[in-house]
Amino acid sequence: MKTCLVLRHVAFEDLGTLASLLQHRGVKPRYLEVGVDRLERAQIEDTDILVVLGGPIGVYEEEKYPFLHRELGLISGRLAGLRPTLGICLGAQLMAKALGSKVAPGPAKEIGWAPVELTAAGRTSPLRHAKGVHVLHWHGDIFDLPPACENLAFTSHCPSQAFRKGPNLLGIQFHVEPEPQRIEAWLIGHTVELGKAKVAPSAIRQDTARFGKRLQRTGRGIFNEWLDQINQ
């Protein structure tokens, strides 16, 4: 059985839609709670698939969150070998920094449901399934396109919303994995951030009801295509 290691930073930001797809393929995902569980180099490098999930901290906050030093170092080693790795939101930012890109606060927070624009490369990548789809944005940081990577998507506030390096490395700044029925956990967990950004939980709740089911189909399309393309 193939293995999938998942680095999780907060409990409610999990694999979502991706979990059932992996299990259907005979891949059993295993979570490691970053900052709590010990991250071992062998397990990061040896797993068939690594998924790095989101969280409400910045990759540049190593003094506040010292575990970031080790996490970044381990991710860097895996990416150097071009081993199949998927990063979502904070996960994509960690991948970008590990690949040599600058990550910093953006001009504005992007929180809520809105589409992204796809680049020419994006329209021929697994992200093609997101064309015209309202995805879930929940970030304040942005990153430069990492060296030797393809930019796949962008918005007016974020010039690089997704990137890939070959078929194996894929970083996505926005969210296509959440399950609509679990969005309330996000609203509870991010209540302070929502208040500071003056975003009403009711607005996200209403948009989730409008766009959530289509996002699930989109997420399945993106993840299935990526899983089909990766080289083990």
Question: What is this structure, in a nutshell?
Answer:
The protein has a single domain, classed as 3-Layer(aba) Sandwich (Rossmann fold), CATH 3.40.50.880. It is built from 7 helices and 10 strands.
**Overall mean pLDDT:** 96
Given as residue ranges, the uncertain stretches (5+ residues, pLDDT < 50) are: none
Report the CATH superfamily. Answer: Class I glutamine amidotransferase (GATase) domain
CATH topology (level 3) name:
Rossmann fold
Radius of gyration: 16 Å
CATH architecture: 3-Layer(aba) Sandwich
- Side-by-side strand order of the widest sheet: 2-1-3-4-10-9-8-6
Structural class by SSE content: alpha/beta
Attribute tags:
about 230 residues, two-stranded antiparallel sheet, alpha/beta, Rossmann fold
Describe this protein's structure.
With 232 residues, the chain is α/β, with parallel strands linked by helices. It has helices at 17-24, 41-46, 67-80, 90-98, 183-189, 191-197, 201-229; strands spanning 3-8, 28-33, 49-52, 85-88, 103-114, 117-118, 135-143, 150-154, 162-165, 169-172. Helices cover 34% and strands 24% of the residues. Helix 3 packs across helix 4 (90-98). It is globular and about 45 Å long. The two termini are 13 Å apart.
Write the layout of secondary structure elements.
Blueprint lengths: L2 E6 L8 H8 L3 E6 L7 H6 L2 E4 L14 H14 L4 E4 L1 H9 L4 E12 L2 E2 L16 E9 L6 E5 L7 E4 L3 E4 L10 H7 L1 H7 L3 H29 L3
